[in-house]
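**User:**
Make up any protein.

**Assistant:**
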Amino acid sequence: MGIIKVENIRVFANHGCLKEETAIGSDYRVDIEVKANLQTSALSDELSDTVDYVLLNKIVREEMAKPSKLLETVAKRILNRVFNEEALITKATIAVSKINPPIGGDVEMVTIKMSQKRKKQTYLG
């Protein structure tokens, strides 16, 4: 097994429960970590044998561009796409952070972190 991390993906998006948040938008930070078998790619030196972090970044950016009230919803969408689009991934953890959230205080960021494991396939035969 191995771990691939794409850290501090910075995006501007329009998430939030307040009308002002969705109208004005704000800055976000996203971190994603995936577990996969990296032994084949370590030997082959071929991109097709590993998890392409360019794909991970693309999924994050596309899902962050879709406004949602809750960061949990965005995180779950990202996790679902990661598992649907990359068969090598066995576990993924996503952290979505809203920078300078409007919560009435000096708060750097609020973060939602979620993990998901690939469901085992059961074959009926």
Q: What stands out?
A: The longest strand covers residues 2-13. The helical segments are 19-24, 39-44, 53-64, 71-85. The mean pLDDT is 92.
